[in-house]
Write a structure and sequence with these properties.
Elements: E1 2-7, E2 10-19, E3 25-32, H1 40-62, H2 69-84, H3 87-104, H4 114-126, E4 128-130, E5 137-139, H5 142-161, H6 188-199, H7 206-218, H8 222-226, E6 233-234, E7 239-241, E8 245-249, E9 253-257, E10 267-269, H9 272-292, H10 315-327, H11 336-347, H12 352-359, H13 364-370, H14 372-389
Antiparallel strand pairs: 1-2, 2-3, 4-5, 6-7, 7-10, 8-9
Helix pairs in contact: 2-3, 3-5, 6-7, 7-9, 7-11, 12-13
């Protein structure tokens, strides 16, 4: 939008031309002087015309910046991502950028089209990846491809906001279909046996046993469980609140962060049996503190290393692998324990809004998308109840 100032017998027209790659505001100015014999009405009309012409000229020259995608993305990391996004998100974007830069990093932002993004997607469907565990090569999954395009789209959304580009080419592409696989979870019988085995663990494994018992009864994420402190529990009202997470990244190591979303801050009621085990564990932890003495670092965390410092986020996974080998239990990924918790609630008639609140999802739609099959099964059972009441 232009601003006009009268200066003596002339007018200064100043126009905003957007922002450069570093986010700096760009302005252009010109001076227009009317002819001596022009009337006020003629001056007003011509001034408006001159302003429109100058705006068009500026926008044509500056609305799109001659900056390559890689250069703009690196500026975006410094000026926006590092200030606004969570550490794990930033590190995942740094991992994704390698393939993105190789594909489109050399192209100017204003020249990247939906067709080029679509070609990049097609190239990724043929690209290989190496499995970190087995070393075997395989194709990129549809989910991984979507993550790459999401990173590109995020950068373009920012460029659009900064008036560097006129549109986001990612909005017009077609992504490969993600096939949702049924989550592998424990059956009710397996879960009962698992709880029984965990409660029989030796005192040296009491922390891990309690970690997994809380996972079953709360459905908390791994980071939320590891971030729990004793101050998060109200033993009078038998509740626990999520207020932080404990995560790990290669660049930062173990660190404390805020919960994933605003709705992840939540409070749940705990069964009497879980409260009793919590109190037993706190007594055990206090004894360990006394044994270690000055070497103990006070963090108020439930789950710690031997010296009181926060437990490494990978430790529960390693423990559970050994636990399954010792006991013969089927191994199920820790994250899938959230699905176990949700499935039990849904199967017993808990409504979607309550399930969403308990799991800390940002919206009920997220819960419905993830647990669509479980809700459909629960609805089918509800219809069976009606037919049992009114047999035909």
């Amino acid at each position: 939008m232009a601003t006009i100032r009268k200066r003596g017998n002339s007018f200064q027209i100043r126009v905003s031309c957007g922002y450069d790659a570093k986010g700096n505001h760009i302005e252009q100015a010109m001076t227009w002087k009317p002819e001596p014999n022009m009337t006020e009405k003629q001056i007003e009309k011509e001034l408006t015309r001159q302003t429109v012409l100058f705006e068009e000229k500026c926008m044509q020259g500056h609305q799109t910046a001659p900056v390559k995608f890689q250069d703009y993305a690196e500026e975006w990391f410094k000026l926006h991502a590092e200030l606004k996004l969570k550490t794990r998100t930033i590190e995942s974007y740094h991992w994704l950028k390698r393939r993105v830069y190789a594909g489109i990093g050399h192209i100017r932002m204003d020249r990247i089209t939906p067709r080029q993004i679509q070609k990049f997607i097609k190239d990724m469907t043929k690209a290989g990846r190496v499995d970190n565990k087995s070393g075997n090569k395989g194709k990129l999954s549809a989910k991984t491809i979507k993550l790459h395009v999401s990173f590109i789209s995020t950068v373009f959304d920012h460029a659009l906001k900064m008036q560097i580009v006129q549109s986001n080419p990612c909005k017009s592409v077609t992504l490969p279909k993600i096939i949702q696989k049924e989550k592998e979870i424990y059956t009710v019988e397996e879960t009962k046996r698992l709880i029984d085995l965990l409660l029989k663990e030796s005192p040296e494994h009491m922390d891990f046993a309690l970690f997994f018992i809380l996972a079953i009864f709360t459905g908390f994420r791994r980071g939320e469980l590891l971030g729990l402190e004793w101050s998060d529990f109200d033993f009078e009202y038998k509740t626990v609140s999520v207020r932080r997470t404990s995560n790990v990244t290669p660049g930062k190591g173990t660190y404390t962060d805020t919960p994933k979303t605003k709705t992840s801050n939540r409070t749940l009621k705990l069964p009497d049996g879980v409260i009793e085990n919590l109190l037993n564990y706190r007594r055990h932890q206090n004894i360990e503190k006394m044994k270690i003495g000055s070497k103990w670092t006070e963090t108020d965390r439930l789950f710690t290393q031997w010296d009181g410092k926060p437990m490494h986020p990978n430790s529960p996974h390693k423990y559970f692998q050994r636990f399954c080998e010792r006991t013969g239990m089927r191994f199920v990924s820790i994250h899938n324990w959230r699905h176990l918790n949700a499935s039990v609630m849904i199967a017993n008639g808990v409504d979607v809004k309550t399930v969403q609140t308990c799991l800390g999802h940002s919206s009920a739609n997220t819960t419905l998308q993830i647990y669509c099959h479980a809700f459909q099964t629960a609805q089918a059972r509800a219809m069976e109840v009606v037919s049992d009441v009114f047999p035909i």
